[in-house]
Task: structure prediction
Amino acid sequence: MNEFPRFDLTGQVALVTGSARGLGRAIALALAHAGADVALGLRDVHAAGDVQQRIEAMGRRALPLQMDMTSLEQIFRAVDDTAAHFGRLDILVNNAGVAPENPAENVREVDYDLTVGINLKGTFFASQAAGRVMIRQNGGRIINMSSQAGFVALPTESIYCMTKAGISHLTKCLAIEWGKHNILVNAVAPTFIRTPGTEEYLANPAVRADVVERIAALHRIGEPMDVAGAVVFLASPAASLITGQTLLIDGGWTSR
Result:
């Protein structure tokens, strides 16, 4: 009889970008709960909140790292420091991202450059840095943060939508290129999730009602752990034949 699927990450080392709050925090905690030690990529290394303490309370190791995704120097150093500190890097979660909201006719170059710079450029170069480590190890997992916005048009978020569609295709490209090194590359694509970043937007009753209606099958706002569970699955041995895919976590929004 074949071995049953395993979801355990004991002995694995993960690096999660943007891990101070919201989705990144939930993902870091969920990976630790599954057994992984976690490096915390932080825009401000002094603003990690309680995530390091909570990971260590589970008996896992945590390493806070300065990792502003607009700085290639910080990206490369954070990946190298993770591998040096833990002796390996098995899982990279490219969670960090921004989404300035603006009608397309009003988008400023500075907002365009920041959104593309963090969401696409940062994701690519973090993947490159981690990929080099994983190639030497002959194995690893990279999980990118796409969005349902990469599959449907969201008014006033044209640049964000563009970058998230790009992430899904980048995921395919890296999966094909690095499969020979036993590196699996996938993405998750959430709907609106209840995080500090969406709190103000969803506080508008009309907006919230529209979002809940569009989440057609389940009619509820997502929670960070809804996304974290999918990331743990893709990082686990149970997902060993999945690569190049983007897993929609949208409560049925795009099925309509």
Remarks:
- Residues 17 and 41 are 4 Å apart (CA to CA).
- Strands lie at 13-17, 37-42, 62-66, 91-94, 140-145, 183-190, 246-249.
- The radius of gyration is 17 Å.
- The chain has a mean pLDDT of 95.
